[in-house]
């Protein structure tokens, strides 16, 4: 009798383990990846990492996961001080480790500040976009702006790069990430360049409207509903 009970216990345990493994596999298959490729504005310079806009994005997606029926993980591959040149050089290594469904490119500010010409920035961003699209990612491009003291000719050519790339590669273009932030000193750190923790929710709000339009649902591959969040 005892032997039979032990055998029954082992069989039940195996069934539970199998079901748990299957559930975990299902969760993994439904999990999508968002890659953020940016500079200090996305790396959370001067503030706790868990208070940055990228962390807030992950929190928002987690809160909506149950109703939407899927989960996202957010990979923040942003580095303070990075340029389009630097991001281009490290993208291959990133894509070896991650296969993003969606990629957010927030780059160019340091290019302008360091005097990298818009033509070079455009070439670098074009390669980044092409590599991400070839990897199967839908791309959100975040336009940057330069301070007016750089002169109208430079700033106009610099800002035009983002519209040109969006048109050429059929990208979703968000608002300027510091829209309604940079002009408020109380939302900027003492350096006047980096936003405070209080500004991070506004930064997310500047990107979220276009991002939510392209977030794929887990059953998109089965040609079912692809309604956004």
What does this structure look like?
The structure is a single chain. The protein has 229 residues and is α/β, with parallel strands linked by helices. It has one domain (31-218): 3-Layer(aba) Sandwich (Rossmann fold), CATH 3.40.50. The chain has helices at residues 2-30, 40-43, 53-68, 84-97, 109-113, 118-134, 152-169, 200-214, and strands at 31-38, 71-76, 102-106, 138-141, 172-173. Strands 2-1-3-4-5 form a five-stranded parallel sheet, with helices on both faces. It is globular.
Tell me the distance between the termini.
55 Å
- Please give the share of residues in helix: 40-55%
Quote the beta fraction.
5-15%
Shape: globular
**Domain module count:** 1
* Strand count: 5
Strand order of the largest sheet: 2-1-3-4-5
CATH homologous superfamily heading: SGNH hydrolase
- Taking all Cα atoms into account, the compactness measure Rg is 22 Å
Q: Which segments are poorly predicted (pLDDT under 50) over 5 or more consecutive residues?
A: 2-29, 219-229
Strand count, sense and barrel status of the largest sheet are: 5 strands, parallel
Tell me which CATH architecture applies here: 3-Layer(aba) Sandwich
> Structural class, from helix and strand content?
alpha/beta
**Mean pLDDT reading:** 84
What CATH first level would be assigned? Alpha Beta
Helix and strand pattern: HEHHEHEHHEHEH
Work out the helix count: 8
The CATH topology turns out to be Rossmann fold
EC number: 3.1.1.5, 3.1.2.-
GO molecular function: phosphatidylcholine lysophospholipase activity
Organism: Methylohalomonas lacus
Domain SGNH hydrolase-type esterase: 36-200
């Amino acid at each position: 009798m005892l032997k039979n009970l032990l055998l029954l216990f082992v069989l039940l345990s195996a069934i539970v383990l199998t079901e748990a493994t299957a559930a975990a596999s299902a969760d993994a298959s439904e999990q999508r990846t968002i890659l953020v490729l940016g500079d200090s504005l996305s790396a959370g310079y001067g503030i706790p990492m868990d208070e940055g806009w990228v962390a807030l994005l992950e929190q928002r997606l987690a809160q909506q996961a149950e109703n939407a029926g899927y989960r996202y993980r957010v990979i923040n591959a942003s580095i303070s001080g990075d340029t389009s040149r630097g991001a281009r050089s490290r993208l291959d290594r990133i894509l070896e480790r991650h296969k993003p469904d969606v990629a957010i490119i927030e780059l160019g500010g340091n290019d302008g500040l360091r005097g990298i010409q818009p033509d070079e920035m455009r070439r670098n961003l074009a390669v980044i976009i092409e590599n991400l699209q070839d990897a199967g990612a839908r791309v959100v491009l975040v336009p940057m702006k330069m301070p007016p003291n750089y002169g109208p000719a430079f700033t106009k050519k610099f800002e035009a790069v983002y519209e040109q790339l969006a048109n050429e590669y059929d990208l979703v273009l968000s608002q300027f990430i510091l829209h309604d932030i940079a002009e408020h000193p109380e939302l900027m750190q003492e350096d006047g360049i980096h936003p405070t923790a209080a500004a991070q929710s506004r930064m997310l709000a500047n990107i979220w409207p276009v991002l939510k339009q392209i977030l794929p649902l887990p059953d998109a591959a089965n040609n079912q509903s692809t309604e956004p969040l």
